[in-house]
Amino acid sequence: MSWWWILALVLVLLLFGIYLSMTAGRLDRLHLRIESAERALDVQLALRTAITIDLAVSGLVDPVLGAVLTDAAHAARTSAALGVREREIAESDLSRTLSLAFVDPEDVSEIQRDPEGAAFLEDLGAACRRVELSRRFLNDAVRACRQVRSLRMARWFHLAGRTSWPQTVEMDDTPPPLLSAS
Predict the structure, then answer these.
(1) Rounded CA gap, 14 and 6, in Å?
(2) Contact at 8 Å (CB) between 95 and 177?
(3) Average predicted confidence (pLDDT) for the chain
(4) Which secondary structure element, helix H or strand E, spans residue 5, and what is its range?
(5) Is 13 inside any structural domain?
(6) How far apart are CA 54 and CA 170, in angstroms?
(7) Per residue in 101-110, pLDDT tens?
(8) Is the residue at 148 inside a domain?
(9) What are phi and psi of 82, to 5 degrees?
């Protein structure tokens, strides 16, 4: 075997090693992106829950509506310790409760007449939009990571190590229509 063949073989192995290293680095960055997106979603969900509870106990809404909002927000807050599926259900319930609570334009405009109420509704609408965006960013990162992990070379050489398969967050995060316009 001549030295040209040996040089070509070494060059091919070097390029293959660089490709594997770059793919492993990309997977690592995607997993870090997923972790930061999960933390951001957790923060936004907690903020939405806190604003909902503050609005419910402020006296600006009907007492019955306040109790319903408080119950849904409390269920969402405590579901974080239960599990992923339970949390998705509780957060979806909170989204639906918010959509139903602010369906009447007259009720929303009555709350907005009070400066504190207008600030609550603005903050709540912004928090709902940020929840929606945070979940989208997380699910996009999960899809990208799954795509790279499903590559044949990534599977054969176990480039993801022992990290678990990333999961998307499936919940209803649609902001209330009247709050998203404000």
Answers:
(1) 12
(2) no
(3) 93
(4) helix 3-57
(5) no
(6) 26
(7) 999 999 899 9
(8) yes
(9) -80, -50
R_g of the chain computed on alpha carbons:
24
**Residue 82 maps to a domain:** yes
pTM of the model: 0.89
DSSP 61: S
Hey, what are 22's tokens?
Answer: 């770059």
**Token pair 């951001």 in the structure block, residue:** 40
Q: What is the 3-state secondary structure (H, E, C) of 163-179?
A: CCCCCCCCCCCCCCHHH
Cβ neighbors of 110 (< 8 A, separation 6 or more) are none
Residues 76 and 51 sit within 8 Å (Cβ to Cβ)? no
Domain that holds residue 77: 24-180
Total structural domains within the chain? 1
Mean pLDDT computed over 34-59: 96
Look at residue 90 and tell me if it is in a domain.
yes
What is the C-alpha to C-alpha distance for residues 55 and 59, in angstroms, rounded to an integer? 8
